Automatic annotation (TrEMBL):
Family from the record: Belongs to the MGMT family.
Organism: Sporosarcina newyorkensis 2681
Gene designation per UniProt: ada
Record key words, sorted: DNA damage, DNA repair, Methyltransferase, Transferase
InterPro entries attached to this UniProt entry: MethylDNA_cys_MeTrfase_AS, MethylDNA_cys_MeTrfase_DNA-bd, MethylDNA_cys_MeTrfase_DNAb, MethylG_MeTrfase_N, MGMT_N_sf, WH-like_DNA-bd_sf
PANTHER family (alphabetical): METHYLATED-DNA--PROTEIN-CYSTEINE METHYLTRANSFERASE (PTHR10815), METHYLATED-DNA--PROTEIN-CYSTEINE METHYLTRANSFERASE, INDUCIBLE (PTHR10815:SF12)
Protein name (record): methylated-DNA--[protein]-cysteine S-methyltransferase
GO molecular function: methylated-DNA-[protein]-cysteine S-methyltransferase activity
Keyword rRNA processing tagged: no
EC nos: 2.1.1.63
Length: 179
């Protein structure tokens, strides 16, 4: 994917802890752009921003992301199940189609990669759908943690299978990891 340069646009970011989760996020004026949960999420975010946007301007500013942070806090605290925040879609048309399909997976439900390929109208594009899911920059908001392998295993997750399992359990699913 070619870099989408941010011309005249600022990318804002912040990090915070909530309910034992380490959250790092970034946004533009258009909407939320990145959410990470790993201990090294800030480093991963900056690397991702460089790949996506090149040498765009990036500034830490918790106040600019307060609305997004409140929504993430509410989700991780179990107060809300869906996100209503605006998103700055950063993917290819195919990735965005996959990511929008992920947003339709109900809270606490699990689907497979092949289910997603079917939902987007490309039933034979399972690997392409899985690749798009793996490139999801908006953990939680685009709930890729709700996608598992056809054999029932957790499969991959950008910030680690342990966090994926924790999110699935937080949503009340009795999934037992076989990986």
């Amino acid at each position: 994917m070619a870099n989408r340069k941010v011309v005249g646009k600022m990318v804002y970011w912040t990090s915070f802890d909530v309910e034992g989760w380490n959250v790092t996020m970034a946004a533009t004026e258009r909407g939320l752009l990145y959410v990470g949960l790993a201990e090294d999420a800030e480093e991963k975010m900056k690397s991702w921003l460089t790949k996506q946007y090149g040498a765009g301007e990036v500034k830490e500013n918790a106040d600019r992301l307060a609305e997004y942070a409140d929504e993430v806090r509410s989700y991780l605290s179990g107060e809300v199940q869906d996100f209503t925040c605006s998103v700055d879609w950063s993917g290819t048309p195919f990735q965005n189609k996959v990511w929008k399909a992920l947003q339709d997976i109900p809270y606490g439900q699990l689907v497979t990669y092949s289910d997603i390929a079917e939902i987007i109208g490309h039933p034979s594009a399972i690997r392409a759908a899985a690749s798009a899911i793996g490139k999801n920059p908006l953990l939680l908001v685009i709930p890729c943690h709700r996608v598992i392998a056809k054999n029932g295993s957790l499969s991959g997750y950008r910030d680690g299978q342990q966090l994926k399992d924790r999110l699935i359990r937080m949503e009340g699913n009795s999934f037992t990891s076989s990986s």
